[in-house]
Amino acid sequence: MPGPDGPAVIRSTLRQQIADALRDEILAGRLVPGQEFTVKEIADQYGVSATPVREALVNLSAQGLLDSVQHRGFRVHEHTLDDYRGMLQARGLIADAIFRDVTTTSAHHAVPAAAFVSVRRRGEEAARAAAAGDLTVLIGYDLRFWRELSALFGNAYLSDFLHRLRVQSWVCAVPHLRRESERGGDLRGRLWSRHTDLVDALTRRDAAHAHTIVDEYNAHSLDLVASLAAGSVRPAGPPGPAGSAGPAGPSA
To answer: Where does residue 176 rank: exposed (0-12), middle (13-18), buried (19+ CB within 10 A)?
Structure first.
């Protein structure tokens, strides 16, 4: 039998690397909804054997990012606005569960303020990218922000589920956002930048305010994606929180 660093582990690592690379290609808009490709094409592109590629594609299909096309290979999944609406609802429910835990007054379960320091840094970077309209950088930091935040909950299953939902929701929104950018639309001021506001609310253990921020986030997300999907023009940015100016919600 192979040792702990043998072929099975190497193949598993390679499979994950290919899956991550393809996911990033979709998020970057280089693989677009409806685009088809074969295992061989991807294997040739990355210079690897077919087995880890097939496993990676099956894994991405299980995550809802790809569809298997009989006798033809795989296709980038085409999400609908109803899909997006469902994703927002689901991730909102999970976020509420997380916030109830990180804001608890129980001495045994309370998350100390120091635990939010790293999450805040991710949020600051994401907010800067949002202000600059840099979608690629924003997606990376936004996913890391929510990954670290959900990890404070301590439930790996919920954390993984939330991460998958957030990836899916970005994948759903990205084609509309990138199309808007390509046709000259300015994304500055239209991308969610309230990551640190959310951290502040959670540091104060104010679950109600955190819930409100996420609700505004999701409402604006759906409105923006729906507007872009319909080809309508949207003002530069929604009103910010009461008494301030700036974006109140995200693009995904």
So the answer is: buried
pLDDT 10s digits, 183-195: 888 888 888 899 9
Q: What does the pLDDT read at residue 113?
A: 80
72 plus 85 within the same structural domain: no
Q: CA angle 58-62-64, nearest 5°?
A: 115
- Residue 20 belongs to what domain range? 7-76
On whether both 199 and 113 belong to a single domain, the answer is yes
Inside any domain, residue 202:
yes
Say what the alpha-carbon torsion angle 114, 154, 135, 185 is, to the nearest 10 degrees.
-100
pLDDT in tens, 97-110: 888 777 665 544 66
Quote the tokens at residue 173. 């929104």
CA angle 18, 22, 26 (to 5 degrees): 170
> Of the residues 76, 103, 133, which one is the last residue of a structural domain?
76
| Segment 155-169, tens digit of pLDDT | 888 889 999 999 999
Percentage of the chain exceeding pLDDT 70: 84
* Residues with Cβ within 8 Å of residue 12, at least 6 apart in sequence: none
Token digits of residue 139:
């997606």
